[in-house]
Amino acid sequence: MMSTRPKNTIHYCPKCGSSEFSFREDQSFLCKKCQFHLYINSAAAVAALIINNKGEILFTKRAINPHKGMLDLPGGFVDIMETAEQALVREIKEELNLDIDKYRYFISSPNEYVFGGLSVFTLDLAYICELNSFNHIHAKDDISDYEFIAPDLIPYNRIGGESIKRITKAFVQKLG
Predict the structure, then answer these.
(1) According to a count of CB atoms within 10 Å of the terminal CB, is the N or C end of the chain lower?
(2) CA 69, CA 72: separation in Å to the nearest integer?
């Protein structure tokens, strides 16, 4: 993934277009022409840990890249000026048509994946969620399917994101 990192893919200043846009050790770029300073930061994303009454964890199947066809936890990016909690509720409604009744923060995990030939960095914030009903569940938005998997049967090699694997493993260990 090193070749897709911003220092290898961003060559021009987004403010003035100059090629005198150099990468610095603090994970930023500085334009020598206009002095524009661009920092590379992580975007916030949320992931929901949802268990049914059989003790199985809800996973989604990604309909798009990155990791198309792989398992994921339901969730997604936090929109501009949105709280992580608002994003959690919105994403679960958008992807699965489910309403979260209660949630509590569990753990965070950093992630890097390639989208459009560029490494994207996220900080995935995981929440343990409770729902009253799964009656109206259906896959939509950027997921193609969903499945409930018993904690001891999770196929970690089918989970696309490294951060989601780490979050899932920590959650299964907590369930112990």
Answers:
(1) C
(2) 9
DSSP 128-153: EEE-S--TT----TTEEEEEEE-GGG
The reported pTM is 0.92
DSSP 18-82: -S-EEEETTTEEEETTT--EEE--PEEEEEEEEB-TTSPEEEEEESSSSSTTSEE-SEEEPPTT-
Could you report the per-residue pLDDT of 11-48, keeping only the tens digit for each? 999 999 999 999 999 999 999 999 999 999 999 999 99
pLDDT at 1: 56
pLDDT of residue 156 exceeding 70:
yes
Contacts 24+ apart (CB under 8 A), 30-35: none
Q: How far apart are CA 56 and CA 44, in angstroms?
A: 26
